Amino acid sequence: MFDLYYWPTPNGHKITLFLEEAGLDYTIKPVDIGKGDQFTADYLSISPNNKMPALVDHAPADGGAPQTVFESGAILLYLAEKTGQFLPTGPRARVEVLEWLFWQVAGLGPMLGQNHHFNQYAPEKIPYAQDRYTNETRRLYGVLDKRLDGRDFIAGGAYSIADMAAYPWIVPHAKQKMDLADFPNVQRWFDAITARPATAKAYALGPQVNPDLGQPLTEEQRRHMFGQPAR
Length: 231
Fold this sequence. Notes:
Helix content: 40-55%
Number of strands: 4
Shape: globular
Distance between the termini: 33 Å
């Protein structure tokens, strides 16, 4: 039913988490961002921001042509609405999930992404940038830790797309210079999601799709991932 244009990054993992939890049929279409697959004309017709992931639904609700969806948060919302899963129907509970979904896509992801870049990938170490994004990462972890005080999941008692959005960005916490022991509520939540069978299935896809996962980037990969100007 679904084609998932995917590479094993935090944003890619968000969608495989949903698809595995919901037990949906999908086909992986690898988008090798280190080779520049995200800039091909075919992919840009689906994802005009040249980012990954993207989704194609071959059986949309209106029965028409396949529906394309880009941006990971939009994909999670689309899948939740289509399947009726991982998004409450009650208006207040729904708003709560959407608040934290948007918190992730607007803050947690971008800030932690900059942390990764300046602490791991930047060819020149810039202490101000490293401190700036490490400190902002710590602040956001603190926000999440406070939110999870007395709650099993971000939006309350039920696992939701808000959790699926945030979890993959916490997985590389050590590379972000974060110690989960400093955030006990985040640690408890993180361990609970890690233990879910669907999480293991989603993350097992990473090395299958990219056998070089975790290896240092080549100069070609850096050029495609970090050096593309406007076209």
